[in-house]
UniProtKB/TrEMBL annotation:
Protein name in the entry: Putative Flp pilus-assembly TadG-like N-terminal domain-containing protein
Pfam families (alphabetical): Tad
Chain ranges passing through the membrane: 23-44
Keyword 4Fe-4S (UniProt): no
Length: 246
């Protein structure tokens, strides 16, 4: 009886050892699979982070291009009044064009996009101005650093890229009466009556008198650009909105 019990116990120990030996390779396979999944998730997260960084750079570069272009438009609109030339003569057609967001060079805008992309560790690979239905800048950037080495092949030499488009939206139009209903300054120095239009003169003439004012309406608010009264002038954001296209 005792011998039988001993043989039974010995057999159980041998079977337990064989079971443990068979389970160990399965354990190694499971650990390796979990490690592979962890590394794969890390690689995916690394790629997503690189892509998000490139998109941030593209958004910033496109907005920078649009804002630079808006500043150029604003300068072109207001400088004649600061210099005393005023809003008479053939300038109205040019100002109407600029109020629609056209008429200035797009080169400085794309240069500004380059600078802002560099601040976000990226380079601009394309900057494409557009004009319909509104002036826009489509900017494509590429990250300066690769995604990084991972278990996914070629990520060590892959660079994230992204594109964004900024639109310069006009907010103003020329007032119908040309001056917004406020008396202007005539080209020869005579004041217009209250509620009347200014004279037809352009730049300041030999009398040293400023040119006539120009009325514009921005989102329902009337501004009178008067060379003789420069205390209140619209800001760039009053004239144009810059936003990312959806």
């Amino acid at each position: 009886m005792a011998a039988t019990t001993a043989r039974t116990a010995g057999g159980a120990r041998r079977r337990g050892g064989r079971d443990a030996g068979q389970a160990f390779p399965l354990y190694l396979v499971a650990v390796a699979a979990l490690l592979f999944l962890a590394l794969a998730f890390f690689a995916v997260g690394q790629a997503a982070a690189s892509r998000n960084g490139a998109q941030t750079a593209a958004d910033a570069a496109a907005l920078a291009a649009g804002q630079q272009y808006r500043d150029q438009l604003t300068k072109g609109l207001l400088d004649p009044f600061r210099s005393g030339a005023g809003g008479g003569g053939d300038g109205r057609a040019r100002w109407a064009e600029q109020l629609r967001g056209r008429g200035v060079s797009s080169g400085p805008a794309c240069e500004n996009a380059d600078w802002f992309a560099a601040q976000n560790d990226a380079v601009v690979s394309a900057c494409r101005p557009g004009s319909e239905p509104a002036t826009s800048f489509a900017v494509t950037v590429k990250s300066r650093k690769p995604v990084g080495r991972s278990i996914i092949p070629s990520t060590g030499s892959t660079y994230a890229s992204a594109e964004a488009k900024a639109v310069v939206v006009p907010r103003c139009t020329l007032a119908e009466d040309g001056t917004g209903g406020t008396g202007g300054t005539g080209g020869t120095g005579d004041k217009g009556g209250t509620g009347g239009k200014g004279g037809d003169g352009g730049a300041a003439d030999g009398t040293g008198q400023p040119g006539p004012p120009l009325g514009i309406v921005c989102d329902g608010k009337t501004w009178v650009l008067d060379p003789g009264n420069l205390r209140v002038l619209p800001q760039a954001s009053d004239l144009f909105a810059v936003r990312l296209a959806q």
